[in-house]
């Protein structure tokens, strides 16, 4: 096997995945695996005009959720800048997966609960602790204009949900030369974010559709798989989560599927 895998993810989040992929490729004697990371999204701090850190942190909260590592990172930076002396609420904190849970725990100094097997919003909402939330006050730390599914579900269950938006996303343009280069070098694409996938597919010219249909895909959820055009789903493998271990296992399955197809 001699090919390149394109990982649509920020560099800092891709490095653990790249390391595990390289180790797995060597162990299975799959040859030289090259990886390239590209993020379709630029992340930057966002000053929420609807919230005051001092006032927000002083309020009583039953539970809180930070939707990602970025949410934990920018929450920590902004709290240090604007409310360094105000303690983090003594609430129960939740995360979608273990990576974000570790970042949140380091930020709030408290244990963080996340789903064990699958790491997505549906699995989080299925936790026993989130079934009886009527009357509870929840603080949801997220990006500007983030998904509403989690908040809407909690509100339907009777919770009082408040947002704190701490970062914003901006689409990144891809140079035509880079797309041409990918078409000649890349045989597989890995993506863990719906936003990354949406921006990527939107940026692709129609001339790239044949290449994209020939690639194998590794995605982090069924939701992402459903976002792919039908012709791309032919060689799509869904990982159990966005952790490096789960993504690597899904990649191994995708490679074996490719080999079986050739045989």
Automatic annotation (TrEMBL):
Record domain Tetrapyrrole biosynthesis uroporphyrinogen III synthase: where: 35-249
Keywords: Lyase, Porphyrin biosynthesis
Keyword Membrane included in the entry's annotation: no
Pathway note: Porphyrin-containing compound metabolism; protoporphyrin-IX biosynthesis; coproporphyrinogen-III from 5-aminolevulinate: step 3/4
CDD domains for this protein: HemD
Pfam families from the UniProt entry: HEM4
Alphabetical list of SUPFAM superfamilies matching this protein: HemD-like (SSF69618)
Gene3D superfamilies reported in the protein's UniProt record: 3.40.50.10090
Role of this protein: Catalyzes cyclization of the linear tetrapyrrole, hydroxymethylbilane, to the macrocyclic uroporphyrinogen III.
Protein name: Uroporphyrinogen-III synthase
Organism expressing this protein natively: Pseudidiomarina maritima
């Amino acid at each position: 096997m001699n090919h390149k895998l394109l990982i649509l993810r920020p560099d800092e989040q891709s490095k653990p995945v790249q390391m595990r992929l390289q180790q797995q490729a060597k162990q299975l004697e799959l040859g030289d695996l090259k990886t390239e990371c590209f993020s379709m999204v630029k992340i930057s701090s966002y000053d929420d005009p609807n919230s005051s850190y001092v006032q927000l942190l002083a309020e009583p909260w039953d539970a809180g959720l930070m939707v990602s590592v970025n949410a934990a990172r920018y929450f920590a930076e902004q709290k240090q800048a604007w409310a360094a002396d105000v303690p983090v609420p003594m609430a129960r904190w939740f995360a979608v997966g273990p990576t974000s849970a570790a970042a949140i725990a380091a930020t709030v100094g408290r244990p963080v609960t996340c789903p064990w097997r699958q790491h997505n919003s549906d699995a989080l909402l299925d936790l026993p602790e989130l079934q009886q939330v009527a009357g509870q006050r929840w603080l949801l730390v997220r990006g500007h204009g983030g998904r509403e599914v989690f908040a809407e579900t909690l509100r339907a269950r009777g919770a009082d949900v408040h947002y704190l938006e701490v970062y914003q996303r901006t689409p990144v343009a891809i140079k035509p030369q880079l797309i041409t280069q990918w078409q000649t070098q890349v045989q597989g694409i890995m993506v863990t974010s719906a936003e990354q996938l949406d921006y990527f597919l939107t940026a692709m010219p129609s001339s790239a559709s044949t290449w994209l249909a020939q690639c194998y895909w590794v995605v982090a959820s069924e939701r992402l798989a459903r976002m792919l055009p039908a012709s791309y789903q032919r060689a799509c493998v869904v990982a159990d989560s966005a952790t490096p271990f789960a993504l690597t296992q899904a990649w191994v399955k995708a490679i074996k599927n490719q080999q079986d197809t050739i045989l």
